[in-house]
Write a structure and sequence with these properties.
301 residues; alpha+beta; Rossmann fold; D-amino Acid Aminotransferase, Chain A, domain 1; Dna Ligase, domain 1; five-stranded antiparallel sheet
């Protein structure tokens, strides 16, 4: 198969591994810089152009669209979909997962476990929002934040009010969530491909750090999932409409709760912690699933 990886950085571990895994299975794999693509939108013959020429037909694309270029990146993925190319993650599903508020609303509607979350526009509603999610300590998150950036733990109601007022003063959109203390600064990253969890690791935040992101000094180890955790991860991926994603789960007193569904999960941490060849599993799924014009809007169910 001829496969394109949409990535702005060919030196990233995830990009390199996807190239290696694809070639190891006999595929012709190209790395295409998402932002260098431009589109010819015309009747019956849409095309993606690149460096002055029309790109050849690809059987499948693997989007590695960064959060900072979501709008343009999903437009490029959508153009490939219009051309009949199979995308392992559809453009609409990527957009859905990048909107943290929309994601939580969709997951809530389908009865997926979540930390109690508040969202408001007026500062006059701050106290009631904090009360609604159970009071301090609370976690305050920027909707646009990634890798733990823009996430604050407020230990008291007064501190929470001050932080929320500051964010609102900057016209920033934020979520207020209950703090899952029993998680102990750890979460579980479930790597979902298709309709199953192919690998899982427990990430532990550095000492004194409530965020477990590996980019912030956290550590990771292999973890055995419970049936409920596995089912929660798969259901969350299905609701988002994603074939490939990382589902981040906290272990709470009322069962597993989903913190985030990441449509561009990194391969380095999960492969190092579990010893599994996740890249190979991704291509196995593509080989079984990719067909012309197979892309369609799915999820939310």
């Amino acid at each position: 198969m001829k496969i394109a990886i949409l990535s702005r950085n060919p030196k990233l571990y995830s990009t390199r591994r996807l190239v290696e895994a694809g070639k190891a299975r006999g595929h012709d794999v190209d790395i295409i810089n998402t932002l260098w693509c431009y589109m010819d939108i015309t009747r019956n013959r849409p095309a993606v152009r690149y460096k002055g020429a029309e790109l050849p037909h690809y059987d499948a694309v693997i989007p590695r669209v960064g959060a900072s270029v979501t709008f343009y990146g999903t437009a490029v993925v959508r153009q490939f979909e219009m051309m009949g190319t199979f995308s392992i993650n559809e453009s609409v599903a990527i957009s859905r997962s990048r909107d943290k508020l929309r994601s939580l609303q969709l997951l809530s509607r389908r009865n997926v476990g979540l930390p109690r979350t508040g969202f408001a526009n007026k500062s006059s509603n701050i106290r009631d929002v904090i009360k609604t999610v159970g009071g301090a300590p609370v976690v305050i998150k920027l909707l646009e934040g990634t890798q733990g950036i823009g996430v604050v733990l407020a230990e008291t109601n007064k501190a929470a009010e001050s932080v929320i007022e500051a964010f609102m003063g900057l016209k920033a959109n934020i979520l207020v969530q209950e703090f899952i203390k029993e998680a102990g600064g750890a979460d579980i990253r479930c790597f979902v491909v298709g309709n199953r969890v192919v690998a899982a690791m427990k990430r532990q935040g550095a000492e004194g750090e409530f965020r477990s992101n590996l980019h912030r000094g956290g550590s990771a180890e292999l973890v055995k999932l419970t049936k409920e955790e596995r089912e929660t991860a798969v259901k969350a991926a299905r609701v988002m409409g994603l074939n490939l994603c990382g589902v981040d789960i906290l272990q709470s007193n009322h069962g597993p709760v989903v913190m985030e569904v990441n449509s561009t999960p990194g391969l380095e941490g999960i492969e190092m912690a579990t010893g599994k060849d996740v890249g190979d599993m991704i291509y196995q799924f593509i080989e079984k699933t990719a067909k012309p014009h197979r892309t369609r809007t799915r999820g939310k169910g």
